[in-house]
Amino acid sequence: MTSIRPGLPEDGPGMRELFALCHERELPADLWDWRYRGGPEGGALIDVAVDDGRVVGHLAALPVRLERGERTLAAALWVDLMVHPAHRNLDVFLEMAEANRAHCAAAGRELLFAFPNDRSFPLLKRMLDWHAVEDVAALEAPLSGLAQPGPPASGWQVATGLEPAPEFDAFWEEVRPREAWAVRRGQARLAWRYLAKPRAGYGFWTARDETGRLRGWLAAKVFAGAPGPVGDILDFWVAAGAEPALCGLWGAALGHFRKHAVLTVSAWALRGTPWFTRYQELGLGPCGPITHFAGRRTSSGGAAAFPGLGRDWHIAKGDSDVF
Predict the structure, then answer these.
(1) Alpha-carbon distance 274 to 2, whole Å?
(2) Residue 238 half-sphere exposure toward CB, CA atoms < 13 A
(3) For the chain, how many helices (H) and strands (E)?
């Protein structure tokens, strides 16, 4: 008989075995540990379905801090919703989803969001009170069609590598969106997301003005796609008016992609946001793969309305656990 309960540290091997079965690839122990135990907001909130002592279902919520102007919100990103093929039925899905929602609410997480696949997306909307915010069409273009900017302006420096420091917290306070919810991107998140992830192979660049002040940063990754390598822009943040930083960081990323024989450059941004406009101005267009984006409040009673418009959010590829 299948039962639902919170995940335990000793469930790790069973979770990884289920992951390998469902995704046909391994989830190494160090990657599992990074994903579920080391985030800047604390470890993941996990619920599992168990049958005869074996993990046959799994759902995790990664705690994050959302910020919008001066407001802040404790939230969580749903990841790795998995059910063993022999146990896939609507009851297990619904019971596990409800258990994790209640788990998150009890832990003080006010809001859930996710990038659900085509199978779970309709069920979340129809049966679990999730709101479809906006389908994210990847902004893409052939690398060969993108112009390489010139060198940084005189006195400005673009450097490779990441050394998290308090200046990233100060920079975030300067650039964080005032009219959209965004996951906090201070030094703690950068250290976890881009330095601590095993075997990630990220590229990271910072831009500084003549005084050495941080004016922007960019994170990227190259992965094997079809018909050839794809260069993903994971995060791209530039201070207002810092055009040399924008050009310098973009040029560094394109140069990195050319060294790795990238065919396509890709990024995420929601329509109607400054980031969508920026990528269009740089030559990318919404022609890539579609990803669903949805969410809900963890409580149904007396809570504020869910921010359900695309312009209510800043979403980048760095927000997903896949990249």
Answers:
(1) 47
(2) 19
(3) 8, 15
Coil vs helix vs strand at 160 = strand
User: Among residues 313, 323, 321, which one has the least CA distance to residue 136?
Assistant: 313
Q: Which of 114, 7, 123, 129 is nearest to 56 (CA)?
A: 7
Strands 45-51 and 285-291: unpaired
Q: What is the dihedral of CA 284, 112, 78, 7, to 10 degrees?
A: 160
Q: Which residue from 102, 63, 98, 106 is spatially nearest to 81, judged by alpha carbons?
A: 98
Q: Which of 276, 210, 213 is nearest to 239 (CA)?
A: 213
Euclidean distance between CA atoms 33 and 177, whole angstroms: 31
| DSSP letter string, 27-93 | --HHHHHHHHH--TT-S-EEEEEEETTEEEEEEEEEEEEEEETTEEEEEEEEEEEEE-GGG--HHHH
pLDDT tens across the length of the chain (323 residues): 899 999 998 999 999 999 999 999 999 999 999 999 989 999 999 999 999 999 999 999 999 999 999 999 999 999 999 999 999 999 999 999 999 999 999 999 999 999 999 999 999 999 999 999 999 999 999 999 999 898 888 999 999 999 999 999 999 999 999 999 999 999 999 999 999 999 999 999 999 999 999 999 999 999 998 889 999 999 999 999 999 999 999 999 999 999 999 999 999 999 999 999 999 999 999 999 999 999 999 997 655 789 999 999 999 999 998 88
In the structure encoding, which two tokens stand for residue 274, read together? 């400054």
Task: Report DSSP state, residue 134.
Answer: -
d(CA 273, CA 313): 8
* Rounded distance between C-alpha atoms, residue 132 and residue 67, angstroms: 20
Cβ contacts of residue 15 below 8 Å, gap of 6+? Answer: 7, 27, 32, 46, 48, 55, 58
DSSP state of 148: P
Q: Write the single-letter amino acid at 307.
A: P
